[in-house]
Every structure is written in C-alpha cells, then in structure tokens.
C-alpha cells in the first residue's frame, strides 16, 4: 500500500470514528453525579453539551461537498436540573444538481427514498449518494466505498458489455436499449420511524437498528445524470463561534465557582 493510500485509509478511519463518537456521546455519557457542587455539575454538563455540538459542527463542515450527506443536529435539553443533548438527523432533501454523467443518479422521494446497498456483513445499507460506477467485473458499485448496489431481487447488479447505459424513472437499467436489471429503491413511510430506527455509518450510508415499515404506496423517480447535494443549511462561522463562546462561558463560571470555594475554605481555616 502506497503512502497516499495509507493516508486516505487513515483519514477515512478517523472520520468514521469521529462520526461514531459524536453521535453516540449523548447516549454513552452518564453525567457528573459524583460532583457535590451543583454549579460545577451544571457547568460540566454544559461544556459536555457544547462539545457534542462542536463535533457535529465539524462533521457537517468536513462533509459539505459530499453528495447525499444528511446533516446531523442536536437539541440541548434541560430537565430535572440536568443538561443533555439529543442527537438526530435532519431528514430533508438536498438540492439536485445536473452532472451529465450517466453513472450519477438521484432518487426523488422527499428524502424518504434511498438506493439500497449490500454492506460487508450482508445487511442492507441505504444511501442518497448516487455516485455509482462499474468495477472490473462490471458490477454496479457505490463509487466511494465500493459497496455493491442492490437489485430489486436483493442481489448484486452485473451489467453486460455495451455502449450505452440508461436508467428509467422506475430504476430499470438498460444497456444498449435492452433491460438488464432494476435498482432496489426503498421509500420509508414516516420520518418519525426514520428518526427512531436509522443510524449512520458515515453520514451518507445508513443502516436500520430496527424494522421500519416501507411506504405501502411509494412514489419516487430516479433521475439519471443528477446528484443530490448535501442538505446542510447551517451558517458555519456562526455555529462555530456560538459553540466556542458557550463553552468558554461555562468554563469561566466553573473557574469562578472553584475560586470562590477555595477562598471560602481558606477563610474558614486561616
């Protein structure tokens, strides 16, 4: 493996770890109940919440140019005198962009429709990143990650040699005007089910954590020569300063509280 390939592999691993840590931090964190001072507890909870938001900010910033990327977000909650963050994905469609590339595809279904992939463990993956390609065996794969695109029958799609590849709005693939196979398109029924049952691998490829019912009457269209751009609508600079100042304010309050308690102890024990 060349140094460049090693660097790319290391960068990919780092990004995947960042995705996993940012979106699971709110679930694995158990709080600061061991702290006897409520002011310090609140400050630590606040700084932890800002750290999660900061990680999410970095995630959608580094993926700003990735087609099909779904923006993660987080709601800060204050309940029972505890501050926590609830992470989620902003299920909305990104704008379509015409590329003219016959191996680019866009599924039009109001962000509830996905191309289906075959993950290495055999599980079904879901993506709105329609940058596909043919490998040396003419297997249809996702260009970034080399994951096979799933057919309607649940198998890999192999296209025969030919001059022209076309795709109908229903997802049927043609080679030189001859129908070959059909891409499997999943349209979920409800966004609430998606919020509760879908997790991300890298922001572009998702998998199910529980069974989610499909739309019984799916309406979608596959557009060839188009890609869906990322759906990030955040003001990048404004978000960064907001998280930075919020974290600094919490840290200053914690320092002031600690200094006050130290002074009180010194005065009580001169």
How would you sum up this structure, described in words?
- This protein is of the alpha+beta class and 270 residues long.
- The protein has two domains: 3-62 and 235-268; 96-228, no CATH class.
- It is built from four helices and 16 strands.
- A five-stranded antiparallel β-sheet has the order 12-5-6-14-13. A three-stranded antiparallel β-sheet has the order 9-10-11, with no helix packed on it. The protein has a two-stranded antiparallel ribbon with strand order 1-2.
- The longest helix has 33 residues, at 236-268.
- Residues 3-18 have low confidence and may be disordered.
Summarize the structure.
The protein has four helices and 16 strands. With 270 residues, it is an alpha+beta fold. The strands form six sheets. The chain has a five-stranded antiparallel β-sheet. It has a three-stranded antiparallel β-sheet with strand order 9-10-11, with no helix packed on it.
């Amino acid at each position: 493996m060349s140094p460049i390939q090693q660097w790319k592999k290391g960068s990919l691993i780092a990004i995947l770890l960042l995705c996993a840590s940012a979106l699971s931090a709110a679930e694995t964190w158990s709080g600061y109940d061991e702290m006897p001072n409520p002011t310090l507890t609140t400050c630590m909870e606040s700084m932890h919440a800002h750290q999660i938001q900061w990680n999410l900010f970095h995630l959608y910033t580094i993926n700003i140019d990735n087609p099909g990327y779904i923006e993660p977000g987080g709601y800060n909650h204050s309940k029972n005198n505890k501050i926590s963050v609830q992470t989620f994905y902003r299920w909305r469609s990104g704008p379509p962009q015409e590329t003219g590339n016959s191996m680019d595809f866009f599924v039009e279904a109001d962000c509830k429709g996905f191309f289906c992939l075959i993950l290495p463990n055999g599980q079904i993956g879901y993506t709105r990143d329609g940058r596909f390609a043919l490998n040396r065996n003419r297997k249809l794969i996702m260009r970034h990650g080399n994951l096979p695109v799933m057919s309607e029958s649940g198998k890999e799609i192999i296209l025969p040699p030919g001059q022209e590849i076309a795709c109908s709005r229903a997802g049927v693939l043609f080679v030189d005007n001859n129908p070959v196979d059909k891409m499997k398109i999943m349209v979920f029924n409800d966004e609430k089910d998606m919020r509760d049952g879908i997790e991300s691998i890298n922001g572009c490829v998702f998998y199910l954590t529980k069974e989610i019912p499909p739309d019984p009457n799916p309406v979608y269209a596959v557009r060839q020569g188009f890609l869906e751009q990322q759906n990030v609508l955040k003001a990048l600079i404004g978000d960064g300063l907001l998280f930075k100042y919020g974290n600094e304010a919490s840290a200053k309050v914690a320092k002031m509280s600690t200094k006050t308690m130290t002074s009180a102890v010194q005065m009580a024990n001169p």
